[in-house]
């Protein structure tokens, strides 16, 4: 049986329960300045509001203030890791310190469109990991958003595509610096990661091209293991000597398959991951990977938002900030 949806409690309900006029109740609930209201009266109104479960209506309050206090974070439908969790946690904390509330919206998994979400929340700012379409930007702006990130043509709110390409570039640059010329890119078979993996592969391919290396091929590693892939890489007259993996999970599978095949790591096959899971250091051998400081990214993003909302120019943002290669025994 479907749940019965309770009607939203309004300030009119609070006025009726407290016995005061709607105007006076509005002054109390909105903390309107310049009003001389006895503390006993204020306390009675607030007590009635609490007992009724009154919650301020976001869009209405945004209209009264001329600007909302909600920041909408649009998250792509992709596997959630510790890096993103750290970033969201810090972003929420930093914005809260400025009187702003972060609300997350999972793209592709919500039943409401971005237009409906924006209309309901009236966000003062909207942040995405990927660039928004012109239609989406227009929708957010019409709903009252003063800032939409990432901003096309600027370094404000650097988008996920740029970061993904950078990771692939860093992997190949490191492997090439260690003397490897025949490198392969190992991608996961999770369709949710396809977009991210394509960006990392593109970065790896471009880095190899700049270095004058043989073309980096892309292989999808199935979830049941990388044994077949490792055998294919090592076959022939010119075997693959290094693997740039989309992430640490894929790298663990490649390491296990290499050990099963009796390969010496990194002498015969070097392996590098990305995203630095906490268990990477305990792999056999310990996994070389790339660390992304989600907490640092959260701080930078929050400060960028606050500056833009205050009509200040944020300090220059370097896409490589917080991204560090962690060398270990696997490569």
Automatic annotation (TrEMBL):
Q: Which InterPro entries match?
A: HTH_LacI, LacI/GalR-like_sensor, Lambda_DNA-bd_dom_sf, Peripla_BP_I
Domain HTH lacI-type residue range list = 9-65
Q: Which CDD domains match?
A: HTH_LacI (cd01392), PBP1_LacI_sugar_binding-like (cd06267)
Q: Which SUPFAM superfamilies match?
A: lambda repressor-like DNA-binding domains, Periplasmic binding protein-like I
| One Pfam family cited in the UniProt record for this chain | LacI
UniProt keyword annotations, A-Z:
DNA-binding, Transcription, Transcription regulation
Give GO terms: molecular function aspect only. DNA binding
Task: Tell me the superkingdom of the source.
Answer: Bacteria
Name this polypeptide is given: LacI family DNA-binding transcriptional regulator
Q: Which organism is it from?
A: Cryptosporangium minutisporangium
């Amino acid at each position: 049986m479907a749940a019965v949806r309770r009607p939203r409690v309004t300030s009119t309900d609070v006025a009726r329960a407290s016995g005061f006029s709607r105007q006076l109740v509005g002054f109390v609930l909105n903390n309107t300045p310049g009003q001389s209201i006895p503390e006993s009266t204020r306390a009675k109104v607030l007590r009635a509001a609490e007992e009724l479960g009154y919650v301020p209506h976001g869009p209405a309050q945004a209209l009264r203030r001329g600007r909302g206090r909600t920041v909408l974070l649009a998250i792509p439908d992709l596997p959630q890791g510790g890096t993103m969790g750290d970033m969201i946690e810090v972003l929420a904390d930093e914005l809260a310190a400025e009187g702003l509330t972060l609300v997350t919206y999972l793209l592709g998994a919500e039943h409401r469109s971005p237009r409906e979400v924006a209309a309901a929340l009236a966000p003062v700012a909207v942040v995405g990991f990927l660039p928004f379409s012109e239609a989406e930007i227009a929708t957010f702006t019409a709903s009252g958003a003063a800032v939409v990130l990432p901003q096309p043509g600027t370094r404000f709110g650097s988008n996920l595509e740029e970061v993904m390409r950078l990771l692939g570039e860093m992997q190949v640059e490191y492997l090439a610096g260690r003397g490897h010329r025949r490198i392969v890119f190992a991608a996961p078979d999770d369709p949710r990661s396809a977009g991210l993996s394509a960006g990392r592969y593109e970065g790896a391919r471009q880095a190899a091209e700049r270095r004058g290396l043989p073309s980096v091929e892309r292989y999808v590693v199935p979830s049941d293991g990388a044994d077949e892939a490792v055998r294919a890489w090592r076959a022939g007259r010119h075997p693959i000597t290094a693997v740039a993996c989309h992430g640490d999970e894929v790298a663990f599978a490649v390491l296990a398959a290499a050990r099963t095949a009796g390969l010496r790591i990194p002498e015969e096959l070097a392996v590098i991951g990305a995203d630095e899971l906490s268990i990477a250091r305990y792999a056999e051998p310990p996994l070389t990977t790339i660390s992304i400081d989600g907490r640092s990214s959260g701080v930078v993003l929050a400060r960028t938002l606050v500056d833009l909302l205050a009509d200040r120019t944020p300090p220059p943002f370097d896409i490589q900030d917080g991204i560090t290669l962690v060398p270990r025994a696997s490569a």
